[in-house]
Write a structure and sequence with these properties.
Blueprint lengths: L2 E4 L2 E4 L8 H8 L18 E4 L2 E4 L5 H4 L3 E3 L1 H4 L6 H8 L9 H14 L5 H7 L9 H15 L15 H6 L8
Parallel strand pairs: 1-5
Antiparallel strand pairs: 1-2, 3-4, 3-5
Helix pairs in contact: 4-7
The structure holds FE2/S2 (inorganic) cluster (2 copies).
One FE2/S2 (inorganic) cluster (FES) binds next to loops.
């Protein structure tokens, strides 16, 4: 049975090792923040961090994720405090929101490598598709998140969730505090 670390929790999945990581996260671990868009590696809605690298979870099997550390949008921060989350809200770079978790994961990986990306670097580093077309606001949000990560700005855009971490974790064992 494939074992991996998800949001800092060791998990063993009693599933076919060829199951795409996306479905293991959504259906078994109840981490539904990771979205299913195209299922063929085009849209990036399913983006997660695997050992810090932004990868499309629809294109990775559980077997390929074996022994690796996966971070989903639920694990990026427990209270929406990650600079990318704050900046996406502050710049209103969210319309329907379906692409947003995947974009946040790509942006977090980009900013971990380069906290001061140019517009061209953002366009090259964020392969995600957004059918609502938030791209101009996205560039502003990512650059703003970078400024916050460099301690040049404080962003207070996103309200804290209206549910405690313990309650939220009740149905999502992969989010339990240890
Ligand atoms: S659902 Fe994975 S890239 Fe679209
Ligand atoms: S905000 Fe709707 S798909 Fe991106």
């Amino acid at each position: 049975m494939p074992s991996l670390t998800v949001n800092d929790h060791p998990l063993e999945f009693r599933m076919d090792p060829q199951t795409p990581l996306l479905w293991a996260l959504r259906d078994a671990a109840n981490l539904t923040g990771t979205k299913y868009g195209c299922g063929v590696g085009d849209c990036g809605a399913c983006m997660v961090l695997v050992d810090g690298e932004a990868l499309r979870s629809c294109m990775i099997s559980l077997a390929e994720a074996e022994g690796r550390s996966v971070t989903t949008i639920e694990g990026l921060s427990r209270d929406r405090s990650h600079a990318v989350q704050q900046a996406l809200v502050a710049e209103q770079a969210i319309q329907c929101g379906f692409c947003t978790p995947g974009i946040a994961m790509s942006a977090a990986a980009l900013l971990a490598r380069n906290a001061d990306p140019s517009e061209a670097e953002i366009k090259a580093g964020i392969p995600n598709l957004c059918r609502c077309g938030v791209y101009p606001r996205l560039v502003r949000a990512i650059q703003r998140a970078g400024r916050a990560m460099r301690d040049l700005e404080i962003i207070g855009g996103a309200p804290a969730p209206g549910i405690g971490a313990e309650d939220a974790a009740r149905a999502v064992p992969a989010m339990r505090e240890r």
